[in-house]
Amino acid sequence: MGNKQKISGKDRRAALREEKKKALASRALVTRAKEKLDPLDEVSVCLKMSLANFDAIVSCSHWNNLDPETAEWVLKLEETNVREMYEKCDWGWNGKMKKEEMTDDDARYLIARSSDGKRLGFSHFRFDMDFDDEVLYCYELQIEEHARRKGLGCFMLGVLEALTVHYNMKKTMLTVFKHNHPGKTFFKKNGYKPDETSPEDTEDEIFCYEILSKYNLHFIAPAV
Asked: Which residues belong to any copy of the N-acetyltransferase domain (predicted)?
């Protein structure tokens, strides 16, 4: 039998203090990002995509700063695009709960518009702590049907990842339904893999979703 090293009470207390310092430093990063009225203000990233027959410009806003027409459009597009997905699993669709989630104080939105102002798609995201990790969590990435398969989803995902890098979040995360095969294919083609926190099916419980993530290769652990 191998020798087991005993950890003294002093060492355990020191380790706990170190973990607490790391957690506080990580939360400070998230707080800094949340405090920005427009997180894109200081980020060096292209916000305009232009193809032969398609163009889009991306802006960022807190939910409370969206104009009423855009806010209504966001909620309507969300239901149009995902209600059926929810109804196919045991979660079901609850419009009231979904609206509460999307209008949360921490909700931020990327809005993509054409050069003539037509709304093309949106992403609901937040800076948050996921267990002990500082993350940018993409809650939604929804595109109007006529604007799909033109590269807009990839472009908006790239903007989110630029925010992840700039604000030194450890990774970009999202949740996707297992039966959303186009969505799973899209995210995995863009480098997203099952996260360590994604639940695994058991004999007693089958999950209708999985959690994907993409690590920030430029992440610098916050100083403690």
From this structure: 64-215
Residue boundaries of the structural domains of the chain: 38-219
Best CA proximity match to 60, nearest among 108, 94, 15? 108
- Measured CA to CA, the distance from residue 26 to residue 67 in angstroms comes to 33
Please name the residue that has the structure tokens 């472009």: 155
Regions of the chain short of the pLDDT cut 50: 1
Cα 180-184-189 angle, rounded to 5 deg:
155
By the 10 Å C-beta count (0-12 exposed, 13-18 middle, 19+ buried), 94 is classed as exposed
Q: What do you get for the CA distance between the two ends of the chain, in Å?
A: 38
Long-range CB contact pairs, 92-101, < 8 A, 24+: 99/75, 101/139
Residue 215's pLDDT is what? 97
- Cβ–Cβ under 8 Å, residues 39 and 108: yes
